[in-house]
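User: Hi! I'm working on a homework problem where we have to compare a predicted structure to a textbook description. Could you give me the structure for the chain below?
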Amino acid sequence: MVSTGDIVAFRKTGDFESLIEVLGDENEKDWSLAAKTLVELGQLSVEPLIKSLENNDEDIRRIAIEALQKQDIRTIGAIITSLDDKYSLIRRRAVNILVNIGISSVEPLIIALANKDVDVNNYAKEALIKIGFPSVKPLITNLVHREDKVRGHSVEALGKIGDSIAVEHLVTMIADIKIQKIVFVALSDIGKPSVKSLIIMTKHNDEKIRGLSAKALGIIGDSRAVKQLIDLLTDKDDTVRSFSAEALGRIGDPKAVKSLIDHLSDRDEKVRIKSATALVQIGKPSIIPLLGVLSQIDETISKYAVEALGEIGKSAIDPLIESLKIDDDIIRMNASRALGKIGQPAVESLLLALEHDDLTIRRYAAQTLGMIGDPRAINPLIALLEKTDPVAQEYASAVLIKIGKPAIQPLIDAIADKDTYGRKYAAKALCEIGPPAIKSLIASFTDKKSYGRTEIVQILVDIGEPSLGPLLKAIKQNDLGLRRYSVMALGGIGVPGVVEPLIQALSFEDVYSRKNAVEALGRIRNPKAVEPLIKALGDKVILVQNVSVKALVSIGKPSVNPLIKALSNENEAIWKNAVETLIELGNLSIESLILALSETNHSKEELIIELITRLGAIQEIQ
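Assistant: Happy to help. Predicted structure tokens:
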């Protein structure tokens, strides 16, 4: 560690190397004094400071370059060498120093544009741009440099400086294929002073130059170019037309609207897209002309008009709602599509349109709300289900299906309301929504006040097997309504997997759950259910006994032998109902009864004879 006295001594003896070593000292006071001393020593310290730019210590290089800034212009070359320093902080400070030195740095920096190191090129260009006007003429002179990269850097710097003097010189470079795009970017950067020259170049024989001129004019955004850009929309080259449409959108002049609409049907898709985008950028002045083409039979034009109106957004909503009132289905359809693209902002206006006296307007409003899928539409659409107008009900139902999950509970509530006219359409919507509705549908079985639980059973049946798992869980719950209607729904689904759970349901305490299980087994007609159903013939409730008879009759021949066997059952209700069932089975029973009579020691021999006699008499009567 050095003292202030040491630094004073180094000064007196001209010990530059020791002073430069102090630049790397951790004590800021010491290295600041050393740097100040080197500056005061002036030209005598230049060579040691330049040499210190090669030091491995980043701090020494940084402080040395700051000290060199205080010296004369002969230090510029040394500072330029720091433009390729591996530390960005040093490179950045070198740029700032060269900028601060000003005009004296320009020529060395111009030379540095040709340096083999890319970083040196870029930082030299940055410094020239920051120096500004003093760099312009040397950069113009550099436009004839043999190296492409040097010409490119020079052009780019002239553009960023933005002096109008450069325009005429840059225009001479447009044929330079290697840097052509950079030239047009530079003219764009210069801005309004370039406009006249660019307008002239839109008439060039080379389509690439016409296109790049149009693009540059769009970036500048000067309305003086509008007429020429409109003319370019008819250019034979697709890219030129595309750049022209894009430029007109950037400028945003309403005078371009008509021509842009004409090019919504351009042969080139990119031109069509750019024209539609331009109309969106122009905004409100485009709306009425765009509405005028919604009736076009040409789907290409109407498609892009719809896209544009949808992108214009809020300001197009009211005119589009008015278009729904026009007695033309093509206009209404396209207006609906545009409103659908606008989305959420259009919902309030569409909800009001749902209340319109005109059925067609209500229909298109409902259709559009379906495209948007906003939950705010649910209640008005449910209300529309209650209208006596089947077309409106169909549309409302279709929209609610599209909205999906958020509409489930309101639709279930609509079915549960006995006073609603739209229960059929609500049921249809829930059926179409399908599996996402199952959980809520089953949960509604617990509502004792619900009027529409049988309709909900049918919805679950129509949804089919996806309902099976949740229903099987539901019948294990203690809730009466949940069990009763889940059993009914399982019977309606009727796949083999429900037979065993339905047999178990025959032992439920609730009589209607048992009744529903019996009826379900009768519809399924699986022979596995015969023995449990014969047992149900002896149920303590006559209602269950009666439906068990019908279920066994429905199953048919597989019921006969177990029923004959049941004639010997000690339970009077079982054997008496078995008799009744066998009679109902008719011809299917006789052969088995005769066979049973041939068996020895049959305890119900007399009863069997009586049954055969009765069935024979019935046959004779028939």
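For your comparison, note the following. Residues 41-47, 618-622 have pLDDT under 50 and may be disordered. The CA atoms of residues 245 and 275 lie 5 Å apart. Good luck with the assignment!
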